[in-house]
Known about the structure:
By secondary structure, chain A is an alpha/beta fold. The first copy, chain A, folds into 2 domains: 31-48 and 319-428, Aspartate Aminotransferase, domain 1 (Alpha-Beta Complex), CATH 3.90.1150; 66-307, Aspartate Aminotransferase, domain 2 (3-Layer(aba) Sandwich), CATH 3.40.640.10. In chain A, 32% of the residues lie in helices and 16% in strands. Chain A contains 12 helices and 16 strands. Chain A has helices spanning 43-48, 78-91, 107-120, 148-157, 172-177, 252-256, 271-285, 290-308, 318-340, 377-383, 409-420, 422-428; strands at residues 32-33, 55-57, 101-106, 130-134, 184-189, 199-204, 223-228, 247-251, 263-268, 343-344, 351-353, 358-360, 366-371, 386-387, 389-390, 400-404. In chain A, the strands form 4 sheets. In chain A, strands 3-9-8-7-6-4-5 form a 7-stranded mixed β-sheet. At the A-B interface, helix 1, strand 2, helix 3, helix 4 and helix 7 of A face helix 1, strand 2, helix 3, helix 4 and helix 7 of B. Chains A, B: This is Alliinase C-terminal domain-containing protein.
Amino acid sequence: MVVGIDKAASAADSVVSSAKKTPTAIPSDSVINLARGDPTMYQPYWRRMGDKCTVVIPGHDLMSYFSDPGNLCWFLMPELDDAIRRLHRVVGNAVVDDDRYIIVGTGSTQLFQAVLFALSSPQNPDTEPLSVVAAAPFYSIKHGNMGMSSFSSHVVGQPLILHGLVPHLVSYPEETEFLCSGLYKWAGDAYSFDKDGAYVELVTSPNNPDGTIREAVANREGGKLIHDLAYYWPQYTPITSKADYDIMLFTFSKATGHAGSRIGWAIVKDKQVAAKMVKYIELSSIGVSKEAQLRAAKILEVIAEDCASSGPDKEENFFEHGHRLMSDRWEKLREVVKRNGVFSLPKYPRDFCNFKGKDTDSSPAFAWLKAKDGLNCDNLLREFKIITRGGPNFGVDSDYTRVSMLSLDEEFNLFLERLAEIKGAANRM
Amino acid sequence: MVVGIDKAASAADSVVSSAKKTPTAIPSDSVINLARGDPTMYQPYWRRMGDKCTVVIPGHDLMSYFSDPGNLCWFLMPELDDAIRRLHRVVGNAVVDDDRYIIVGTGSTQLFQAVLFALSSPQNPDTEPLSVVAAAPFYSIKHGNMGMSSFSSHVVGQPLILHGLVPHLVSYPEETEFLCSGLYKWAGDAYSFDKDGAYVELVTSPNNPDGTIREAVANREGGKLIHDLAYYWPQYTPITSKADYDIMLFTFSKATGHAGSRIGWAIVKDKQVAAKMVKYIELSSIGVSKEAQLRAAKILEVIAEDCASSGPDKEENFFEHGHRLMSDRWEKLREVVKRNGVFSLPKYPRDFCNFKGKDTDSSPAFAWLKAKDGLNCDNLLREFKIITRGGPNFGVDSDYTRVSMLSLDEEFNLFLERLAEIKGAANRM
Lengths: 429, 429
């Protein structure tokens, strides 16, 4: 996932750290950080799986740079290629015919940059850098479009990460601009993009932060599309068709919750685009950790196997489990929101999910919470020790804020408790 | 290691693929690819270690983005930090006092780019991009300096990696130029650099390709240094002192042979530089695979423990083993070279190694072979089905070529056999 990997605002906010290996009881006065999208919710599921997904790596294994020298993506392990294709076939969320190229990356973050390189190189000194756009709301730093100079000075001119702080932003605009590349530049909201010539539009669907299903909006001549489908999995949204776009990005982090592995993959139709993406990854990191690839292959394979198996004694598979958890959380959240009357949430159309074989609701990975009467939603929640990411970070007003729905149970329940208490306080403001 | 990770020229050259898990007998007419630096030589050592370095990772482990939220390098696993510092203390090849920052990267390739970002940002629109230089011979693509435009068109305008080819070049100039950054630019040979203002000099010591011990050569006002110490380990060179430079890069690939893990680390004095490097890695890949970090920590810890232990029954530690192997290979190579009279090799000063406690010879990871009478060394070896990387790739004449000394035994022995046969053929040319 490219957007939405934004993390804690500060160490002070990180009293409840999901970096810990085992959940601990949370003191009731703790600050709860729901600004970041660390997908720790799935950890208990994987713990219950016992040894089924354990990988064992001897000291002499995985030593060479090469994984598959005959493959265009020479650093992709064949078992990961197989597991990715099998999982997409079982879930039905993307076309992975044999003529599609799978490119593995160090998270989809690296793949996003690989795509920008692929679509903008070789540099043509007679033309402008390639424009990169996305439809608002998308994850950004401040309102409106950002020119390179103002953006760069903002990003790199400030104290970046001081000791004791954890990072709080990784966003499309920042990832596009931070190297001041002459190949491409951030050009802001796709709705207002009106330049002639080549451009790239990022389409995140379901979208971060608001969970909506998206299509391209710029639709001008010379446009190319990158589809970030990090959340197009059955626990978050009905799978209505096999996605069949030119360039699709997925990530292990959001699919299964394994954010620490830094594994993403792209499904690419065009061979030259795929080859240039491979070149980017070669130049920026000479491939991708084989340990992480091996583990991702194992886990994706186990999920695919569980999903494909059937029978009366069949246990709940990962996506059924994830969807039940997410539906339950959304139901509880909607109930609290309805009762206290201070906030509202988006409504999502119910749709037939091909994977589940029935009509289902969306249960996005983030709640896009709106405060009534123009209240600053992020500030209001902070008074109750709930840290979220306010609307201005996404180019909209401060009555909106984004809340991660992927925290551990203890954190989520404490969040609901505090949200329920807000009514009176909001009336006093 | 930043340079020298260059790999096979083509699939046709890759008949002997070191990507295979177990060595197989090599047909005597096989092409031997010694152009790349895939360090497969160490694999039998690690196989003999049995379970001592095995890592076991359950499905629920290492899930969060965060490793150490309170640390400046929030994605660095504390056990890797500890293992790196311990190993350097035991080997005595670098100062790792507590006030030095350890930054982990997806190989030292990513760290090299992180340093460039750290030293050149924020962008100052009134000044030129930061100049990046290195003293020849360094790994490059063609003779002389490369301006951005000619370089870029060369790199990205050609068919990059066609299906069936494996990558053949990753180099300082290419890594510096491929994104056409406005922050920094490649400025060629440090010996001829004469511009005023800020610049960065890369110092690789021992050097790739020629194994020499290097110091900075530009020595102008406004210069900053990056020390690539990928080969500053006891198997390659006498450890004469603890390196104590501002920015030092090391890599798991060349230290222990685990190239597939993509783990490198930087030791950095200045906090702001370290913080910006962390920012770069956050923006380009949101950290580094935890599986790879965990495994590197385990293996480095085992080596350090072995090196620190003593006693009459003490087994040969990893560096003693590596040095014995490398010395043996160099001795055999020098013997063949001496006998056939067609080539010459550099001589390296013998020096006292603090780690081994005695005078030792250098045994670099690459042989910098020179053909006599102006013969094209690379071409000559190719006639004998030995693929190497010719001098022009390093900015020098074609009578030089670089030969990897880190291949599997079978490949190295076949290389020596063929080299011994060359005399007559060379006389006929």
